[in-house]
Amino acid sequence: MTVIIDLTPVKYHTGPARLLDMVPGRSKQVFQTWLAAHPQAWRDGIEIVAMDGFTGFKTATNAELPDAVTVMDPLVVKLATDAVDACRRRVHQTTTGHRGRRDKPLHQTRRTLLTEASLITDKQTNRLTTLFADHRHSEVEATWDIYQRLIQAYRAPKPKLGRWLMTHLIDAINTNIPIDLIENRHLGRTLKRRATDILAYFDHPATSNEPTEAINSRLGHLRSTALSFHNPTNYITHSLLETGGFKPHLHPQTR
Predict the structure, then answer these.
(1) Secondary structure element (H or E) that encloses residue 96, with its range
(2) Among candidates 89, 46, 92, which has minimal Cα distance to 71?
(3) 3-state secondary structure string, 122-174?
(4) Per-residue pLDDT tens over the stretch 87-142
(5) CA distances from 67 to 3, 57, 58, 70 (A)
């Protein structure tokens, strides 16, 4: 299902996010068809669209809402965590010839590597220092550093500083990256391709998919308690009820 959420109340601090609709399928065509089915005046009123990294949503938005600002929210950090984890596994396999084991440093620090630097304890810091002292783990260190810099940009006290840090990171990760750093090169291409949407977050810092994830969690709980749904219409109806009930001005199809 493609879930469409109204984030207006969150942005203007007037209430929680609202579930607008759910459409079977997850593709560019599904979202574009849903947008095209609404009146032009309604579409013209949409100023910002927050989304995850799925390119199909970006393409559909550009086609139907050409004047809207597209924002890729901070969940882009997940791409960096995946890069760190993939690099750790690859280097471990290369240096030991087998998968992770409890007595190996790369396996012992797998969770620490995914922890924000400001939250790392002294004991964990010592483990990382020992890990990075081994030149064989230099690729993991480089990938970890980029991950921490990405977090630092989003944690910046002022949006202007965050945008500056993110801009420099995107430029750095796409310049002179060794060919062996496969994960960093892939991450760099993604960040460069979606740079406009990523940097737009710092111009609209209140725009985030976090409320969307909160509603998705409620829908997940609904599915588990209902032991799944076999009828999409029933699922959508129950989902609207679970997340706040029907509102005629939001859900005219329920009148």
Answers:
(1) helix 77-96
(2) 46
(3) HHHHHHHHHHHHCHHHHHHHHHHHHHHHHHHHHHCCCHHHHHHHHHHHHHHHC
(4) 999 999 888 877 767 778 888 888 999 999 999 999 999 999 999 999 999 999 99
(5) 22, 15, 13, 9
Q: What is the DSSP letter of 97?
A: S
Q: What angle do CA 171, 209, 32 make, to 5 degrees?
A: 90
Quick one: pLDDT band at residue 245, thresholds 50, 70, 90? low
Q: Would you say 118 and 58 are in contact if contact means Cβ atoms under 8 Å apart?
A: no
**For residues 153 and 166, is the Cβ–Cβ distance under 8 A?**
yes
pTM, 2 dp: 0.79
> CB-side exposure of 148: number of CA atoms within 13 Å?
14
Rounded-to-integer distance, Cα 187 and Cα 209, Å: 20
Q: Which residues contact 87 (CB under 8 A, 6 or more apart)?
A: 139, 140, 143, 181, 182, 183, 184
Looking up tokens 């998705």, which residue turns up?
216
Distance CA 82, CA 165 (A): 21
Contact 250, 21 (CB under 8 A): no
- Given the structure tokens 């308690």, which residue do they identify? 225
Tell me how far the alpha carbon of residue 135 is from its chain's centroid: 32
Return the pLDDT at 247.
58
Does residue 56 contact residue 28 with C-beta atoms inside 8 Å?
Answer: yes
The tally of CA atoms less than 13 A away on the side-chain side of residue 119 is: 10
CA-to-CA distance for 119 and 12, rounded, in angstroms? 31
CA gap 180, 208 in Å, rounded? 34
Residues 192, 74, 168, 183: is their CA dihedral positive or negative?
A: negative
